[in-house]
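Please fill in the sequence for the structure shown.

STRUCTURE ENCODING:
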């Protein structure tokens, strides 16, 4: 056991300690998330969603019982290129805050995508290749997911179409350049290349886009690949993605165990919910089993897109075009169009069914924060810890700092763990706006929220 007073700034597990299985948190939940449904209310079965997702991913999506799933050797070999990722002790931040708390963060930015997204991208592309598919499609908000899937598609020899939310496409051109370096085709969404996109533009020619719209376009494109050789792949929200991201939490758990530590508070940013679900998975398992009942879990979302804190827990379409099955989740309504804040990866109208269920059942707390506060925390963190965080990750940083400040007031020596999901080196447009004092905060009015809620469907016999 390591003396935590002299714990390393960065702890790397050995390569042979990379998990060989993903962990399915649903298997330990007292009640699993509500099942995916079709618009008529029927519970979705494998055959209903197989035209959209790879067969292996369909099986993972619908499996609430298998606790551990083997990571294919072809995926594990690629994991070794950039994993294990480091567990870092934020000593400089602790000193600056004069806090007795111990602050740890799991840093997932050590790969070309600059984020945790590669963990699921490799798995999804691998399964597509194993199924002898030729084309995959996806959406991307801030660009991390599109970049990660571009890398994975190139590695496994697949053609990839990416629909990138238009405001991010314009704000982050270098993200697009990286995707194109990996031979992906990148289209700003909404676009005139799909029926859904043309309808969106007809209704709102100046639309800056949303993840829900980009999803609709990507699904439409996948369903029109000749010879049924195309599938759609999603970077967050779905059960399968949360499963793949559990590698973050499993590595964190093992590293903290080496240090003789256990977190009192686990914090992650939340847009679709995959990085948060992955980080908390083994620690939430201990809470659900009654082994660590007092651990606190905090999901942090933007005040401009407050699905967990101001949304409704209801069945809703995962996409604005209403082409996907429905998920029971905290949602602002599939028609909600968030303001073009800089945390593009968090601008989604809904939330992972797993995270939503945990929140609804009282196992997880949620906080909504303003982007100006988030960027102030991001810059302080960068100056102290030498990593420029992605705006999404900075939401977790802000709340971790707030919790550490609270410990400074109370004298509690809590252990805080947060997820640093990626780097912000392609977000300089946002940092520039903040430094020039040109960044503003938008908090949706009740009227704006009601307009989104109006798009939540009514399902006879269900809601």
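FILLED IN BY: designer on duty
SEQUENCE:
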């Amino acid at each position: 056991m390591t003396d935590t007073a002299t714990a390393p700034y960065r702890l790397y597990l050995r390569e042979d300690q990379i998990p060989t299985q993903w962990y399915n948190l649903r298997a330990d939940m007292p009640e699993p998330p509500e099942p995916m449904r079709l618009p008529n209310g029927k519970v979705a079965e494998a055959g209903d969603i197989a035209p959209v997702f790879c067969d292996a991913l369909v099986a993972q999506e619908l499996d609430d019982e298998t606790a551990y799933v083997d990571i294919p050797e072809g995926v594990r070999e690629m994991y070794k290129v950039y994993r294990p990722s480091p567990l870092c002790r934020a000593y400089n931040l602790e000193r600056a805050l004069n806090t007795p708390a111990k602050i740890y963060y799991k840093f997932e930015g050590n790969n070309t995508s600059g984020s945790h997204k590669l963990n699921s991208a490799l798995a999804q592309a691998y399964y597509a290749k194993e199924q002898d598919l030729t084309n995959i499609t996806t959406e991307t908000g801030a660009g991390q997911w599109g970049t990660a899937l571009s890398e994975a598609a190139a590695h496994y020899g697949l053609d990839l179409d990416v629909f990138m939310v238009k405001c991010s496409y314009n704000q982050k051109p270098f993200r697009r350049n990286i995707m194109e370096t990996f031979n992906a085709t990148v289209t700003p969404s909404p676009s005139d290349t799909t029926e859904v996109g043309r309808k969106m533009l007809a209704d709102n020619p100046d639309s800056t886009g949303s993840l829900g719209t980009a999803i609709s376009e990507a699904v439409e494109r996948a369903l029109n690949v000749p010879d049924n050789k195309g599938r759609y792949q999603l970077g967050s929200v779905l059960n399968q993605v949360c499963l793949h991201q559990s590698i973050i939490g499993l590595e964190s758990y093992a590293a903290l165990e080496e240090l003789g530590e256990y977190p009192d508070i686990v914090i992650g940013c939340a847009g679709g919910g995959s990085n948060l679900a992955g980080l908390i998975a083994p620690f939430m398992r201990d809470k659900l089993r009654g082994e660590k009942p007092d651990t606190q879990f905090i999901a942090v979302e933007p005040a401009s897109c407050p699905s967990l804190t101001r949304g409704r827990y209801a069945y809703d379409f995962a996409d604005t075009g209403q082409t996907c099955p429905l998920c029971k989740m905290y949602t602002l309504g599939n028609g909600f169009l968030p303001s073009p804040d800089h945390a593009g990866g968090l601008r989604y109208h809904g939330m992972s069914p797993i995270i939503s269920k945990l929140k609804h059942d009282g196992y997880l707390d949620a906080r909504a924060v303003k982007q100006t506060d988030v960027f102030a925390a991001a810059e302080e963190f960068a100056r102290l810890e030498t990593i420029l965080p992605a705006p999404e990750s900075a939401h977790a940083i802000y709340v971790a700092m707030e919790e550490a400040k609270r410990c400074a007031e109370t004298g509690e020596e809590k252990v805080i763990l947060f997820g640093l999901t990626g780097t912000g080196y392609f977000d300089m447009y946002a940092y520039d706006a903040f430094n020039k004092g040109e960044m503003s905060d938008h908090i949706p009015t009740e009227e704006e929220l009601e307009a989104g809620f109006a798009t939540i469907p009514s399902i006879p016999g269900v809601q």
